[in-house]
Amino acid sequence: MTNRTNPKKYRIVIVEDHRILREGLKAMLSSNPAYEIAGEGENGLEAIRKTDRFMPDLLLIDLSMPKMDGLDAIREIRSRCPDTRILVLTVHKAEEYVFAALKAGANGYLLKDATHSELRLAVEHVLNGKNYLSPGVSEKLVEYYLEGKKHMNSEFGLDMLTQRERQILKLIAEGHKNKGIADDLCISIKTVEKHRSNLMKKLDMHNASELTAFALQKGLVR
Question: In whole angstroms, how large is the CA radius of gyration of the chain?
Answer without folding.
Answer: 20
